[in-house]
Specification:
Largest sheet: 5 strands, antiparallel
Shape: globular
Number of helices: 10
Oligomer: single chain
Order of helices and strands: EHEHEHEHHEHEEHEEEEHEEHH
Strand order of the largest sheet: 11-10-9-12-13
């Protein structure tokens, strides 16, 4: 039987990289004999009632590859009984860095020392608050401010003094964020490990000489990397901790060969990884989906 899949991306985002990710997955699915159709999220009318949804959308797919963060749509597809990769819950956790760190901490996975900023209902932090004094005393400068929502290394700030802290707190405003330990040994360096199922299928090392962040979009350079057993286990554990079938896991390099999980990206784009390593992650994802559907 030919499998029928939908590959969903966000049609409102103008960058070609979002369609490119979906297209790489489509090509891999077609190569496996699937009928694979790329759809924008706006093309799937999200009726809340099951009967309305199924009456409007004929020939529902056997599975959905969800490369977007439209959680409401992903939830609706799951309520219809369609296997969604990654699951809506995993995408939602990954999209919110605070929820991600909570899951990682619950699983005893090493992360930089982290303090969650209290909810302020949109009120900006006053530098005179005792909470701020406690944070400064705990971390000492420099330390990291990281907003809960953001991609490609954006909304992450390295703070060197009280003047910069006030500037970034004003910039963040009422958005949720964390204070986090600055891992000096990993300044401008990190590892990206791509997990699919129970294995790491590709990895690269990213370095930047101009930014504390190593993201390619921030000017980082890529080179293939052969992860050790500790790094592989850590990446797989982190992926499982957020409930994802596949993810790009970013590791920071601490002193004495320690590693910290920085982020777990449920919708990590795979083009840069392919350009760096010549390993196409998409076929691994499609094979994993086939195995998951057989088990069901």
């Amino acid at each position: 039987m030919t499998l029928n899949g939908w590959i969903i991306y966000n049609g409102f985002l103008e960058s070609d990289k979002f369609f490119d990710f979906a297209h790489m997955l489509q090509v891999a699915a077609l190569d496996r004999g699937h009928h694979a159709e790329i759809k924008k999220n706006e093309e799937i009318i999200n009726f809340l009632h099951k009967d309305s949804f199924t009456n409007y959308h004929e020939n529902l797919p056997d599975y959905v590859l969800f490369t977007d963060k439209d959680i409401y749509l992903a939830n609706s597809l799951e309520r219809l009984g369609i296997p969604v990769f990654n699951r809506a819950e995993a995408i939602e956790i990954s999209d919110d860095k605070i929820k991600t760190y909570e899951k990682l901490a619950d699983a005893d996975i090493p992360i930089p020392d982290t303090i969650i900023a209290p909810k302020t209902f949109g009120i900006h932090f006053d530098m005179n608050r005792s909470f701020i004094s406690t944070v400064i005393k705990h971390f000492q400068f420099p330390f990291i401010l990281k907003e809960a929502f953001g991609s490609f290394g954006e909304q992450v700030y390295l703070v060197h003094n009280e003047q910069e802290l006030k500037f970034y707190l004003d910039k963040i405003g009422g958005a949720p964020f964390v204070f986090q330990q600055y891992i000096e040994a990993s300044h401008g360096v990190d590892l990206r490990l791509q997990v699919v199922g129970e294995e790491v299928v590709a990895a690269m090392k990213r370095t930047s000489k101009t930014d504390f962040r190593a993201n390619v979009t921030s000017g980082g350079k890529m080179e293939p990397y052969e992860p050790n057993e500790t790094e592989i286990k850590l990446a797989v554990r982190a992926t499982k901790a957020i409930g994802a079938h596949f993810a790009g896991v970013d590791l920071l390099l601490g002193s004495n060969d320690t590693r910290y999980v920085c982020e777990v990206n449920s919708n990590a784009h795979i083009r840069n990884l392919y350009d760096c390593t010549n390993i196409n992650v998409a076929p691994f994802i499609i094979t994993m989906i086939e195995e998951q559907l057989k088990r069901k």
